[in-house]
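Our platform keeps sequence and structure together, in a single record for each protein. Nothing more is needed to write down the fold, since each code stands for a local backbone conformation. An entry from our holdings is shown next, in its original layout:
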Amino acid sequence: MQVLRRKIAQAGAQRGTAAGTSAGGPALGGAERAFRLALARAAREAMGLALDVTRSAQDRMALTELVDLPPDRALMLMLDQNGGDGLGLIVLSPAVLSGLVEMLTTGRVTAAPPPNRRPTRTDGAMLAALVDAALTGLDTALSDDADRVWAAGWRYAGFVEETRTLGLLLEDAPFQVIRADVSLMDGAKAGPLILALPDRAALSGAAADAAPELDHSFSAHLAAQVETVTARLDAVVGRLTLPLARLSTLLPGETLPLPLAGIDRVRLVGLDGRLVGEGRLGQARGLRAIRLTMDARGEGDGLATPPVARAVPLHSATAPRAATG
């Protein structure tokens, strides 16, 4: 008789789900409805267990609200998402955990109260396959649903020992939270189960709202400031290499020959020694000046009439120094 009542109840629940409503309640969201079915199917196929979701609700919560939901001695398992950088959470109440462990170890679920113990990593490892199967079913069911953006692609990642750790592991962001009341084997054991996943749609919207508008005036202002900076160029007529001993004997008035120097092949170099261009040594408005004939790329007539900012007197043993704008 109990088996008959359970099958009638399951058929009624499936009809209500297909219609998009829970018994006497509002229409279920895509992820909530899919999770109910995926959880029941995973328990049946992976464990041979009759699992019914008698009631469910989906809410959007902040992290501070979420960390207060897990009951004492609940099993808390972390989830990660393929291609995502956040973490999710699934919580099994002590009664649900006890019933699932009983089914795995003895093949049946008893009405005995759950043992007064804290969950362990072994519990998490034992139930990892069931969790992954339920999440895979959720993923498949949401192939064409808008909730896929936050509810798809999740898998078991690890075990969490203490509730206070959740605030450190989970992202401080909105979460989509599905709370389900679960019944095992016609109510032999029953309790809540919680699925909490980061709300990616909300995170994307918040990031877009927080992104500052590009201020193009900053670039223009920076360019104006950079263009006013003085750039020093040295005009090199020729170079001469001498031993240190010869340099130490130089006397005032002594002349050094520059055999390869030529006023028609003056090289312009920067402070780092890099060649900027070549030109001819001449005069402009009574000052020594360089008329550019080739730029650093080797192209002639880089400037037909280069402006001259200032000129420096010629030194006896060095090249003439001129700064061109």
Summary: The two ends are 100 Å apart (CA to CA). Residues 230-239+259-324 form one domain.
